[in-house]
Each structure stands twice: as C-alpha cells, then as structure tokens.
Write a structure and sequence with these properties.
about 100 residues; alpha+beta; two-stranded antiparallel ribbon; about 20% helix; about 30% strand
Length: about 100
C-alpha cells in the first residue's frame, strides 16, 4: 500500500479508491441486496460514488469497495432498483446508468 501525499489518496492493488477529503459527500441512501445472512449493502452519494460493504463469508465481514456502475452486474442493478426507496429511485437509477 502506497500513500501519495500530493494527491491525498491511498493506492491499493484491488478496487478503486477515491481521494480522501475533509468534507464527506452527501449520502443519498443505502440499499441492502443481501439474500442470505451475509451482508451486501450499497451506499450512493450525490457525487455519483458508490460504496459497497459486503461479507465474503463469516470470517471476512464488512469488506468495503468503491465501484463504478459498469462493475455492478445487471442482476444486482435490478435488485438495487427494486429495493430502493421510491424517493431516491430516480437518482440511484441515474448513478447506475440503469435503463
């Protein structure tokens, strides 16, 4: 793991990390699409960032990754839109680039 102080982000070898800021972007909503006892939640932000917090298995819980819309399967996008509260559905669909 490398710290780049000029850009203010941490470079890791798996999923994209976004620059750290002192001001937290405003959260739109968090949607759970868990179908078992393993957690799988997506949080959507006004700046179009998507954070996923999920469990791989019982010994690997609350893993976090930042996703781009193209990294989310059509099946999971369908679940997200279906489980999204009505007042946020339009915003979430736009962020997901959902048809």
């Amino acid at each position: 793991m490398k710290k780049n102080s000029k850009l203010g982000y941490t470079d890791v070898h798996h999923k994209a990390q976004y620059p750290k800021t002192n001001v937290m972007e405003k959260e739109i909503c968090t949607i759970s699409i868990a179908s078992t006892w393993l957690g799988d939640e997506y949080t959507f932000y006004e700046d179009h960032k998507i954070k996923r917090v999920y469990d791989n298995h019982s010994l690997s819980s609350n893993r976090t990754e930042w996703l781009e819309p193209h990294q989310i399967s059509k099946q999971n996008k369908d679940k997200l839109v279906k489980n999204c509260p009505e007042q946020f559905k339009e915003q979430v669909m736009q962020i997901l680039d959902y048809p």
